[in-house]
Amino acid sequence: MSILIVGSTALDTIKTPTAENPRLLGGSASHASVAASFFSPVSLVGVVGEDFPKKYLQLYRRHQIDLAGLQILPGKTFHWAGEYEANMNRRRTLATELGVFETFTPTLPPAWRNLPYVLLANIAPALQHHVLNQIKKPKFVVADTMDLWLNVALPDLLKLLKRVDGFVLNDSESAQLTQTDNVFAALKKIHKMGPAYVIIKQGSHGSILSGPAGIFICPAYPLATVKDPTGAGDSFVGGLMGYLAQAKGSIDRNIRRAMIHGSVTASFCCEGFGVTRTTKTSRADIQKRVNVLEKLTRF
Ligand code: AMP
């Protein structure tokens, strides 16, 4: 079952205490699509400029990512630059250059309007709405977001929460949205805003799901070295949705294992700049780490 992913397709410049890498393949949809591709075929909706390197189009294709919904427009690809502090948990944005994103209107190829699994990866909520408006009867729709949209597009985001099944955000975004630092109180408040499934990500501490079948605490894979955590959240939700799209049975039956697979896929993302490490992994590598997590959490 193919999964529809819309989000940012970017060139990232990433600075860590030890290295700086310009023009990496980045963007929420790129990270999520590569992660999802280990489990399901992916249909990608996004936009890039004429400066977008051909090698990145080839990389998408190598991952069986269908590019019929990727617009290539005159102008520059969205560029994001960020810098990490010594402990790699904090980062600050150095530059956001919208380029072709400024005038982007996502348009779905007609055959994609019936796709059952939809991931609205981080992008302006108005564009997430625009994609949802083109979709017929999806089975499971999950949205991701970032602090920027809480600051500049909150009404649009709140309307979106009434239209999606699942919502994924990190702990600082959840504290901002709900005005509470208590993650369990925050989960309850976010359910009241609409989504039946809410996942709060806690970086290297894992993530917490609250859904119709209760709460699940998902660990992060224990990594002693993190090279670049950019896109870990996108890889997590991409892996999760890719896993769900190929699993038989109900969402409740599969979502815990889907989170574990998302968590493991995100761990590979953190071990290299951009998608460099993720693209070198395999379904078998992912399975090995899933087995480790299973042993670590059994009691
Ligand atoms: P994450 O580390 O999961 O928060 O995601 C990082 C990715 O988000 C990078 O690859 C960026 O290209 C992308 N990104 C940064 N700012 C924005 C934005 N305003 N809209 C959409 N994507 C963004």
Structural key phrases:
single chain, 299 residues, alpha/beta, nine-stranded mixed β-sheet, four-stranded mixed β-sheet, 10 helices, 36% helix, globular, binds adenosine monophosphate
Overall description:
36% of the residues lie in helices and 26% in strands. With 299 residues, it is α/β, with parallel strands linked by helices. The strands form 2 sheets. Strands 5-4-1-8-9-10-11-12-13 form a 9-stranded mixed beta sheet, with helices on both faces. Strands 3-2-6-7 form a 4-stranded mixed beta sheet. The chain is globular. The model has no long low-confidence stretch (mean pLDDT 97). The structure holds adenosine monophosphate. The site of adenosine monophosphate has 16 residues, from strand 2 and helix 8.
| Oligomeric form | single chain
Mean pLDDT reading? 97
What is the CA-based Rg, rounded? 18 Å
Strands side by side in the biggest sheet: 5-4-1-8-9-10-11-12-13
- What is the number of strand segments? 13
Structural class: alpha/beta
Per DSSP, the total helix count is: 10
- Termini distance? 34 Å
Helix content: 25-40%
Report the portion of residues in β strands. Answer: 25-35%
Assign an overall shape: globular
Bound molecules: adenosine monophosphate
* Biggest sheet features: 9 strands, mixed
- List the secondary-structure elements in sequence, H or E: EEEHEHEEEEHEHHEHHEEEHHH
Low-confidence stretches: none
